[in-house]
Design brief:
This protein has a domain at 6-128: Gcn5-related N-acetyltransferase (GNAT) (Aminopeptidase), CATH 3.40.630.30. 27% of the residues lie in helices and 32% in strands. The protein contains four helices and eight strands; from the N terminus they run ββααβββαβαββ.
Length: 180
């Protein structure tokens, strides 16, 4: 499955990342300890780390994923965050981050809804899912508002290196394609 390079929502535009995005990624969210608290990567200390991330993104698009988009405000083109999908047979996993200056506006709910709607419209996809730390109440709310249902607690599921080196509990959320 190869997703489209761009998406449009009412207020946002998603596009494949380019190397020129490194500085905006670094300053918007990657160097912010609060924005990166519940992600799988360490808070970036330099724009060079953002450039390395962008090389990883390019490799994903050249292969079978993950497929990452940067999230831009349509009105001014400012980079607000990123979302990616990781196709896995009949499933698609979502991951995302948003710069703190853009929190509380419903942007991520809008993006998660658009990407999950697209994924579930693909004939081979029957499940869109995501996980979030049990203490990440804002992310849990985004997933719920985007139409994903909480399925359960995954004990000691993953590590958030900016919180602890010990695996933490996560909530699992999903939307599934309804069969006729």
């Amino acid at each position: 499955m190869k997703p489209p390079a761009t998406f449009e929502t009412a207020r946002l535009r998603l596009r494949t990342p380019i190397m020129d995005d490194a500085e905006a990624i670094f300053t918007t969210y990657a160097n912010d300890a609060e924005a990166t608290r519940y992600v799988s990567f360490r808070t970036h200390l330099s724009p060079a780390e953002a450039r390395e991330y962008l090389r990883h993104c390019a490799a994903g698009w050249a292969g079978d994923g993950p497929f990452t988009w940067v999230i831009l405000q349509r009105e001014d083109g400012r980079l607000a965050g990123a979302i990616d999908i990781r196709p896995q047979d009949h499933r698609v996993e979502l991951g995302y981050i948003l710069g703190r200056a853009y929190w509380g506006r419903g942007y991520m709910t809008e993006v998660v809804r658009a990407v999950s709607d697209w994924a579930l419209a693909q004939p081979a996809v029957h499940r869109v899912w995501a996980v979030c730390d049990v203490d990440n109440h804002a992310s849990a709310r985004v997933l719920e508002k985007a139409g994903l249902a909480r399925e359960g607690r995954l004990r000691r599921w993953g590590v958030h290196p900016n919180v602890s080196a010990i695996p933490r509990d996560f909530w699992c959320y999903a939307r599934v394609k309804e069969t006729p």
